[in-house]
Design brief:
Keywords: Membrane, Monooxygenase, Oxidoreductase, Transmembrane, Transmembrane helix
Protein name: FAD-binding domain-containing protein
Helix content: 25-40%
Family: Belongs to the 3-hydroxybenzoate 6-hydroxylase family.
Radius of gyration: 22 Å
Number of strands: 17
InterPro entries: FAD-bd (IPR002938), FAD/NAD-bd_sf (IPR036188), MOase (IPR044560)
GO molecular function: FAD binding; monooxygenase activity
Oligomer: single chain
Length: 426
C-alpha cells in the first residue's frame, strides 16, 4: 500500500538536493506557509566540506529565515584577517569589523557545515526530507494554461509538483534540463579539512591566509579547539590524478605542495581530523552563461551551486545559496499574497522575478571570486606582483568585500501559519 501511495504523490513544491540551498529554500517555503518536499540522493544530511565562512549577507539571509540566533549563540564573529605574501614576507591586514554595532550580529563567522544544515533541517516539518531519492527524469505536462512538473525517481515513484527547484549542486540535473551550460574547471583544486586541538589551539578569532605563486592557503578558528583550513593550488597536470585517500591527501599537502609554508600552517594540517579531508577541482559557470542563460523555465528553476558555481576565493558559495532561498521565498510569498493561493501563473511569474533578481548578482559574485583568486595566486612577473601587492589589496579588494554586505530582503508575512494546501490539486 505504501508503494502505491508514493507512486501517486502530488506536491506544491519539490526541491532536488538537500544541501544548504535545498534546506534553506524548503525553510523559506515553510515560513510563507507552503510545504516543500526535499529529495536528497544521499542517505543522510550532506556534510562534505567540514566548515565554511558565513559573511554579513549570509547572516542577513539566516535572520530572514529565522535561524541566525541558533548559530550566533555558538560561533563568535571574526575580528580581522591577515594575508601573508610568502615570496616577500609582506603582511596585509584586513579588518572585518565583527565586534562592533550591527556587525556584531552580522559579522563574519566560520561555522561547521553540519551544524548549519542541522539548524535548517530542525525547523522543517517532519518527513520534509526524503533521503536516498535519486532523480531519473524530469517531465513537464501542460494542461491548457497550466503546467505541472513530473519527477521520476530511481525507486520507480513519481511525484507531480507545481514548482520544481533544482538545488542539486555543480553537476545539477535540473540545470542541465533547463539548458544551462556545463560548469568548467578553473584550473585550480582545493583541499579542505578540519583540525582538532583537544587542549586548545591558542589562536585569536582571526583569519590567516598565505599566498604564493600559484598557491593559497589559510585557516580560521571555529571555536577554542577546532580550526577550518584550506589549501588551493594549480590542478596537477593530466595523468597526475588528485589523491583520494585522506592520509595521502594530508601527506601530499605537508610533504609536497605546501612544504615551504610556515610551520604554523603545517602544524594545523598535521592536526587534521583525517576523515574530514577532501580534495576536488574548483568549478565555475561562466558569468555570461548566467547572465544570458535560462535560469527559469515556466515553473522550474535552480538555486545555489546549481545556478552559480563559483571559486571559493571570496567565500560566497554558501552565502549566495542562502540569499537565493530568501529571494525565492519572497517572490513566491508575494505571489501568494496577491493571488490568495499558489496558482500556476503566479508561480511562473514569481520564478521569473527571482531569476531576474539573481542573474546579475550571481554573475558579479562569480567574476569577483575568480578575479580575486587569480590575482592572489598570480605569477612571478613584476607587474603581477605590483598589481597584487600595491593595487589589489589596497584598493580593489576592499571594494570586492562590499559584495558581502548585500541585503537580500525579508520574507513577506502571509496571514496564518499555513496556506490552504488544497490549492487546485490535480
Amino acid at each position: 500500500m505504501e508503494t502505491m501511495k508514493r507512486r501517486a504523490e502530488e506536491e506544491d513544491v519539490v526541491i532536488i538536493g538537500g544541501g544548504i540551498a535545498g534546506l534553506a529554500t524548503a525553510l523559506a517555503m515553510k515560513r510563507i506557509g507552503i510545504r516543500a518536499l526535499v529529495l536528497e540522493r544521499s542517505d543522510r544530511l550532506r556534510t562534505s566540506g567540514a566548515a565554511l565562512s558565513l559573511f554579513p549577507n549570509a547572516w542577513i539571509a539566516l535572520d530572514a529565515l529565522g535561524v541566525a540566533h541558533k548559530l550566533t549563540s555558538v560561533y563568535a564573529p571574526l575580528s580581522k584577517g591577515y594575508v601573508t605574501n610568502l615570496a616577500t614576507g609582506a603582511i596585509q591586514e584586513v579588518t572585518m569589523n565583527g565586534n562592533k554595532g550591527a556587525d556584531k550580529l552580522h559579522g563574519p563567522r566560520a561555522v561547521h557545515r553540519t551544524t548549519l544544515l542541522e539548524a535548517l533541517a530542525e525547523e522543517l516539518p517532519p518527513e520534509s526530507i526524503r533521503f536516498s531519492s535519486k532523480l531519473v527524469s524530469i517531465e513537464k505536462q501542460d494542461k491548457g494554461d497550466d503546467s505541472i512538473v513530473i519527477v521520476r525517481l530511481e525507486d520507480g515513484s513519481t511525484i507531480k509538483s507545481k514548482i520544481l527547484i533544482g538545488c542539486d549542486g555543480v553537476h545539477s540535473a535540473v540545470a542541465h534540463w533547463l539548458g544551462l551550460s556545463t560548469p568548467v574547471d578553473s584550473g585550480r583544486s582545493a583541499v579542505r579539512g578540519l583540525s582538532v586541538y583537544p587542549q586548545g589551539h591558542g589562536f585569536e578569532r582571526e583569519v590567516r591566509q598565505f599566498v604564493d605563486v600559484g598557491q593559497k592557503a589559510g585557516f580560521v578558528p571555529l571555536n577554542d579547539t577546532e580550526l577550518y583550513w584550506f589549501f588551493v593550488c594549480q590542478t596537477p597536470p593530466a595523468g597526475e590524478p588528485l589523491a583520494r585517500e585522506p592520509e595521502l591527501i594530508q601527506r601530499e599537502v605537508t610533504e609536497k605542495f605546501a612544504k615551504n609554508f610556515p610551520s604554523t600552517y603545517l602544524d594545523v594540517v598535521q592536526h587534521a581530523e583525517v576523515s574530514s579531508l577532501t580534495w576536488a577541482p574548483l568549478m565555475l559557470r561562466y558569468p555570461w552563461d548566467v547572465v544570458f542563460g535560462i535560469l527559469s523555465k515556466g515553473n522550474v528553476t535552480v538555486a545555489g551551486d546549481a545556478m552559480h558555481p563559483m571559486t571559493p576565493d571570496l567565500g560566497q558559495g554558501g552565502c549566495a545559496a542562502l540569499e537565493d532561498a530568501v529571494v525565492l521565498g519572497r517572490q513566491i510569498g508575494n505571489s501568494l499574497i496577491k493571488n490568495g493561493r499558489l496558482v500556476p501563473k503566479g508561480a511562473v511569474q514569481a520564478l521569473d522575478g527571482y531569476a531576474k533578481e539573481r542573474r546579475w548578482r550571481a554573475a558579479a559574485l562569480i567574476t569577483a571570486s575568480y578575479i580575486s583568486g587569480r590575482v592572489q595566486q598570480g605569477g612571478e612577473r613584476w607587474w603581477m606582483k605590483y598589481l597584487r601587492d600595491s593595487i589589489f589589496y589596497k584598493f580593489v579588494f576592499a571594494r570586492m568585500i562590499a559584495v558581502m554586505h548585500h541585503d537580500c530582503g525579508k520574507l513577506p508575512t502571509v496571514l496564518g501559519d499555513e496556506v490552504d494546501q488544497s490549492n487546485e490539486r490535480e
